[in-house]
Amino acid sequence: VLPDPSPRVRFRAFGDSSLNFELLCWTKEPALKGLTVHQLNSAIYRKFNESGIKIPFPQRDVYLHQR
User: Fold this and answer.
1) How many structural domains comprise the chain?
2) Do 49 and 41 form a contact (C-beta atoms < 8 A)?
3) Structural domain span for residue 23
4) In a domain, 16, yes or no
5) Potential cystine with 13: which of 3, 20, 29, 61 (Cβ 3.0-4.6 Å)?
6) Which of 51-57's residues contact partners 24+ apart within 8 Å by CB, and which partners?
7) What is the DSSP string of 18-44?
8) 56 lies in a domain?
9) Is 40 part of any domain?
10) What one-character DSSP code corresponds to residue 48?
């Protein structure tokens, strides 16, 4: 991730069970975009875990009724 232009975070929307953010950053090698996204997401997830931040996953209850 390049230091210039500096990375930015934007608050995009309220989701059903989430706050949606967008991280903008630049890299010297566009071919490494997938790896860069993986590394950034992994680092964010690790920091969330270390800080005790839980990610709310949607839950659905399905009830089956016999006829």
Assistant:
1) 1
2) no
3) 1-30
4) yes
5) 20
6) 56/17, 56/18, 57/17
7) -EEEEEE---S-GGGHHHHHHHHHHHH
8) no
9) no
10) H
